[in-house]
């Protein structure tokens, strides 16, 4: 049984956090990804506030409205319209900026929903074992049997086409990924000495699962969350491209790519710029995920040091 005092444990945790942050900062590509993600997230938050609280007053005052067709249709990139205009005469840059709101909102909330449902499910299965593990993992296997996008399309079609339903659908789709990762981590953590000590002290199974096992499974779950945010952005863009996501006039990157697909030879900028936004944001989340994986894995850190 460990004889460490709470202050020693706290100090150890802080030193591990500092080490992880130091290793993450040393990962140049991960730092570049973090800058991209931070910028897109900031734009998404500002546009969300502007849209929900100020009725798009900020962007309309500083630039152009993302929804009003007040310009010449299919006008190419220029000083007045750096990304050109679409087939209805709306500024593509303004719409690309506002598209960040939906992508970031879906990525963050859908992954949070999936983590909140899948992580406890996997930890309970890994710690309990036996019939409980068998039943829970077979449910997860059923969900994994469907391609993620196909399952998301079916759920959105059943629930209806709205932002909330897209988030719910993607949250359900990504539950199995978190459950699998949490189960694997729980199987490893359950054999640790501090779990045995908690059992010897007479703590309840609920306390052990949620206070001892789950918190020590967070590192792989955090990495999985950052990577799944990239997949969530692609999935939301795919649903919007198919007309199953957020409905017009709310601009989304996938919807913009879809609307410009008929003008690729005459006005490619309508699809190209939101496509670049999707690419850079997904790349940023993937780089952050890779950096977190390396920083939070002691074996990777040891290999870099030696």
Mean pLDDT rating: 86
- Provide a count of the helices: 14
- Tell me the total number of β-strands: 0
The SSE order reads HHHHHHHHHHHHHH
Q: What is the CATH topology assignment?
A: MetI-like fold
Beta content: under 5%
Indicate the CATH class. Mainly Alpha
Distance between the termini: 31 Å
Main structural class: mainly alpha
Q: How helical, in percent, are the residues?
A: over 70%
Stretches with pLDDT under 50, minimum 5 residues: 1-12
CATH superfamily: MetI-like
Number of domains: 1
Shape: elongated
Largest sheet: none
Radius of gyration: 23 Å
CATH architecture: Orthogonal Bundle
Summed up:
The chain has 14 helices and no strands. The chain is mainly alpha-helical and 306 residues long. The chain has a single domain (38-66, 83-305), classed as MetI-like fold (Orthogonal Bundle).
Account of the 3D structure:
- By secondary structure, the chain is mainly alpha-helical.
- It has one domain: MetI-like (MetI-like fold, Orthogonal Bundle).
- 75% of the residues lie in helices and 0% in strands.
- The protein has 14 helices and no strands.
- The protein has helices at residues 6-26, 28-54, 57-62, 92-128, 130-144, 148-159, 163-173, 175-189, 193-200, 205-213, 218-241, 253-260, 269-296, 298-305.
- α11 runs antiparallel to α13.
- The two termini are 31 Å apart.
- Residues 1-12 have low confidence and may be disordered.
